Amino acid sequence: MAGMPVATLRIWEQRYQAVRPTTAASGHRLYSSADIERVSLLRQLTEQGHAIGLLAALGIGQLRHMREMMPVPKVAASGNWHEAAPQPLPMRIVVVGQALARRLQRLVERQPGRTVLEWVGVFDSLAEAAQAAPRSAEHGVDLLLWQAASLQPGARHELRVAQNAWGAPATAVVYRYASAAGRAELTGAGAAMLHEPADDESLGQWLTSLERRAATAGDDRRGPDLAHPAAMDPADRLASAPRFADAALTEFAGLSSAMACECPSHLAQLLLQISNFETYSGDCAHRSAADAQLHAYLQRVAGAARMLFETALEHVAIAEGLPLPASPDGKTFSAVADVRRAPAVF
Predict the structure, then answer these.
(1) Are 259 and 290 in contact (CB under 8 A)?
(2) Which among 172, 116, 178, 177 is positioned nearest to 145, based on CA atoms?
(3) Do residues 15 and 91 both lie within one domain?
(4) What's the pLDDT score for residue 137?
(5) Contacts of 40 (CB under 8 A, 6+ apart)
(6) Are residues 217 and 305 in the same domain?
(7) Rounded to an integer, what distance in angstroms lies between the CA atom of residue 177 and that of residue 156?
(8) In the chain, where does DSSP find H-type helix?
(9) Does one domain contain both 121 and 218?
(10) Four-point Cα dihedral 245, 248, 250, 252, nearest 10
(11) Based on the domain organization, do 102 and 179 belong to the same domain?
């Protein structure tokens, strides 16, 4: 996992006490996710010329800081020296499934220059991964990768718990056998799905696509705080009943506004479309259980989106001095007392 020769690792442990794994009753060394991170940092820093004897006594925070401060190497091109392009940060992953971890390790060993991975932990089950997750946000990972031998409906919650425990902005599932409902459930939740291929090359190509996705996710490698309700899947929230009647929204869209961009009209029209799609998804005919589950998910997502746009329309109406559209029961209700004191947050 750390890309270390066993002989070197033993010397670092026995001579310098750079890492101190526990020992099982069988005599095997047991390395924690913190041990793996420490060894990875030590390997990177020693490759930059730092002495292991000096690094061994440093804490994990100091080692992280030294890695961040490593100078960008200079390379020669056409006789001129220039700064080399910065290397991408390794994709930090948690793997659930020992067999999948071994396949990935084999892939990295065969093509060492193809992929940049940093194993933070390998576990036998999602429950074990969730329980072993550190409390500190500093250990955030980029991806939770799960190998499922049999995938059935109901796995989404357990996957979500493990994802939130590690603060992973993305999940991916490699499955061997799966029902249509099980696949639809996790696809709808945003997980990348792959039927486990027999050849390592196909697995490697899929992994490369996940790396690109992680690389374009932004500078914050830990992603959003998935434990916060605002960052959860919108389908996990219970949508309230529509606040504005369709006829009232249509009338609101035709009101004059001082805003040059006609945002009030656009918001009203968007709300009509989202509300109608929410109703359509709920009424859609279902050909199978998986189809029914997918449309129920779409209905919940549309309901969550409608609630956000209802709040946005209310703020715009107050800012423009426009009357709020009436609700389906003919009443007008405002949840925003003062737009200056309670700005909308999206």
Answers:
(1) no
(2) 172
(3) no
(4) 47
(5) 1, 2, 3, 118
(6) no
(7) 16
(8) 6-16, 33-47, 52-55, 60-68, 98-110, 126-132, 155-166, 180-188, 200-215, 246-253, 263-283, 289-320
(9) yes
(10) -130
(11) yes
Q: 118, 114, 116: which is closest to 201 by C-alpha?
A: 114
Name residues whose C-beta falls within 8 Å of residue 9's C-beta, 6 or more positions apart in sequence.
2, 19, 39
Between helices 155-166 and 180-188, what is the axis angle to 10°?
30
Is the Cα dihedral 95, 99, 105, 110 positive or negative?
Answer: negative
- Measure the CA–CA gap between 210 and 112, rounded to whole angstroms: 17
Contacts of 204 (CB under 8 A, 6+ apart): 107, 111, 114, 115
Indicate whether 39 and 105 sit together in one domain: no
Question: Per residue in 104-160, pLDDT tens?
Answer: 877 776 665 555 677 788 899 999 988 888 765 455 688 899 999 888 888 888 998
- State the residue range of the domain holding 264: 235-320
Task: Find out whether 142 and 93 touch, Cβ atoms under 8 Å.
Answer: yes
pTM above 0.70, yes or no: no
Number of domains in the chain: 3
Please check whether residues 257 and 302 belong to one and the same domain.
Answer: yes
Please state, in angstroms and rounded to a whole number, the distance separating the CA atoms of residues 227 and 123: 21
Residue 335 lies in a domain: no
Residue that the structure tokens 């989404």 belong to:
156
Helices 289-320 and 263-283 cross at an angle (nearest 10°) of 160
Domain assignment present for residue 230? The answer is no
Q: Are the C-beta atoms of 152 and 263 separated by less than 8 Å? A: no
Residue labelled with tokens 């910065």? 86
Q: Tally the residues of the chain.
A: 346
Q: Are 258 and 316 in contact (CB under 8 A)?
A: no
pLDDT, residue 201, reads: 76
